Amino acid sequence: MVDEENKRMLKQKGTFAIPGNEIKDDKIVEIIPFENDGSYEEVVIPFECHEEIRKELEDRGYTRENLLGENNEEIQYINTDKNVIQLINPRVTKFRGYQKKYSVTAVTNMLLTYSEMQKIGYKIALKSKADVVWIWFKRDGAPNGINIVTQQWFKRALKPFFINIDSEDDEIVDYGELILSENRQDGYVCSAYYYNHPDMPAKHLAVSKNAITVNLDIKKSSEFLTLCTNLLKGTKLFITYKINGGEERSTSVTVQDAKTIITLEGYQPGDQVSGDVTLIMSILQDKNIMDEYGIDYENLTGTFICRSEKESMVYGRKHFFIK
């Protein structure tokens, strides 16, 4: 079926997806939302890249005029001379011992596209008169940053020190006297920003409502030590220990059951043993364990789990002393 008046239908090619409905006695009794379909996926396009995507669509002929028969509307972006950013934490250091390096965080007071940030960054780099300039663009109101853009500006003579011809992550833009190496992050924190701002609080996934409270203890029998825990079979643990206050040693343990025998080198019944049991990062666990616990251990809770804004990793740790 084709509607001759529907210019969009005439231009488009593809498949229309129609949600299913629940039918009883030949009547529709409930409409099943499209989102319930297993193939449904919501895609969020950050504002920063709207302009570039729109330009790519126009180059391929996807315009309001072609699709809808309406006049194209030119979208007006900001005048980069306006005060749309706030510069915080500016720092001047040395690069290679004698050249000037300028670093600063640019907090945007409004949403900016990538090209707008490039124009603003270029002006900041020129004004600094530094040989190397690092700029981190981050949205205002997002403590840990969202869609952070890292700009590294440098003079043309320094190009061999910064351009990695094998890298596919950075976009290189030639601005004449300055060259821009740009890295775009779609996550919350990019590594360069994090390491240059060590006081920034770490962000973790929220603990799930059905999180399991971890129980873990080490008990002594007449011949060996036993790990007692409700962690899943196959969970990997790391143990550091000292026997009778001697040299520190380490071993790894994989949970076998509710009770797992621990073999410690040099241990004899009657010895005093002190140390720490550590639950290694989720990403280092086997996939079936990681899927159950969560990538950030969001499905585990209790005093054994260490989750803090001061540390980027979530792990488990408990000290023990047996005599």
Question: Outline of this structure?
Answer:
The chain is an alpha+beta fold and 323 residues long. It is built from seven helices and 18 strands.
Q: Describe it for me?
A:
The chain has about 325 residues and is α+β, with helices and mostly antiparallel strands. The protein folds into 3 domains: about 5-70, no CATH class; about 85-195, no CATH class; about 210-320, Immunoglobulin-like (Sandwich), CATH 2.60.40. It has 7 helices and 18 strands. The chain has helices at about 5-10, 50-60, 65-70, 115-130, 160, 190-195, 285-295; strands spanning about 20-25, 25-30, 85-95, 100-110, 130-140, 150-155, 170-175, 180-185, 210-215, 215-220, 225-230, 235-245, 250-255, 260, 275-280, 300, 305, 315-320. Strands 3-4-5-6-8-7 form a 6-stranded mixed β-sheet, with helices on one face. Strands 13-12-15-18-17 form a 5-stranded antiparallel β-sheet, with no helix packed on it. It is flat.
Tell me, what's the shape? Answer: flat
- Segments where pLDDT lies below 50 for 5+ residues? 37-41
Helix- and strand-based class?
alpha+beta
Count up the domains. Answer: 3
Order of helices and strands: HEEHHEEHEEHEEHEEEEEEEHEEE
Give the total of beta strands.
18
Strand content: 25-35%
Q: In percent, how helical is the residue content?
A: 10-25%
Largest sheet, in brief, is: 6 strands, mixed
Mean pLDDT: 79
Radius of gyration: 29 Å
Can you list the strand order of the major beta sheet?
3-4-5-6-8-7
User: How many angstroms does the end-to-end distance come to?
Assistant: 83 Å
Query: What is the number of helices?
Result: 7
What oligomeric state best describes the polypeptide chains here?
single chain
